[in-house]
Fold this sequence. Notes:
binds zinc ion, elongated, seven-stranded antiparallel sheet, 10 helices
Amino acid sequence: MKLRYQFRLYPSTRQRIELAKAFGCARVVWNDALRIRQDAYKQGEPLPSVVALAKQVITEAKKTPEREWLGEVSAVLLRSSLRDLQTAYSNFFASLKGTRKGPKLEPPKFKRKTSRQAVRFTRAARFSITKEGNLRLPKIGDVEVRWSRELPSDPSSVTVIKDAAGRYFCSFVVEAEDKPLPELDLEETDTGIDLGLSSYAVLRGRKVASPKFFRRQEKKLRRAQRKLSRCQKGSNNRRKAKLVVAKEHARIADQRRDFIDQETTRIVRESQAVYLEDLAVKGMAKTHGKSVHDQSLGMFARTLEAKCARYGRTFVKVSRWFPSTQLCSRCGSIEGPKGLEGLKIRAWTCSCGAHHDRDENAEINIRREGRTLVAEGRPDT
Ligand SMILES: [Zn+2]
């Protein structure tokens, strides 16, 4: 299984200049190749091969005065930029055909100087980690890294990133072995997960509260965006306001990732099986807009699924059409709160006399449905 490990980088001023060159060259090669592919497509010509593209946008281009400076950075970098474009295209085509999981992808786009910048160094580009713990990059030097955890094995490549907030990161791809956790008693520890509104998630016997920072950060972000919209185009203030917005976005992304990492790790440690109610369950996005909370749910589900696979836990999605909230977990009649109005109801009493906390009742139902799906051997619904 391939895993990504990301750390903060602290390049010196000189290294920043060198990195800027590398970003620029990789971007130009990407854009040149993309333009050639697009033109070929428009004119109905066959798409050029990677080798032909490399010759045209790297080898031949270096000989022209307009692209001479491509020679200043490692050629391996330029080739991996082309390969990344190739990968972006294959992913896009696979997504079109429906052979790729996940959301629909857009075709590759032209890269702009102002957005996130990235270059990838493969083993062939001879990057290494020095004894002192710096990241050694060809033509750039030894860059200081803040290691927050250990790499499980030698990385096969490293991507150096400068985000829109001006921070630098290195992101390693490493091959990691699956390491199953000790098996727990299934009946005792399996859990349904109801992704809620009042709580972030409702689990068997406990609730994960929605982190306060979601709302707080959202306010800050909105304020920054309002300020940006009032700034005049092309002005200095606008540039500054843009950076503030980017920084807020970056901070939100960091906190969201930390929160999700922490919560999913705990769930995987505690539970032998998790049954997750499929998302978009209660029309959340429609009623509330894409809040930070909503955006985090997809990531939560993906992270949890990946961790379950890695640590030997069962992961099952329960259909969003399953009436987890309306079903009485004691007698099985469907008379609980329905629809959008039902979202406001926190507790209800069934005609059988059972008194339910809405969310806890939903968890029990999801857990039961999950167990049934596993027993019937169709965990992929
Ligand atoms: Zn009942």
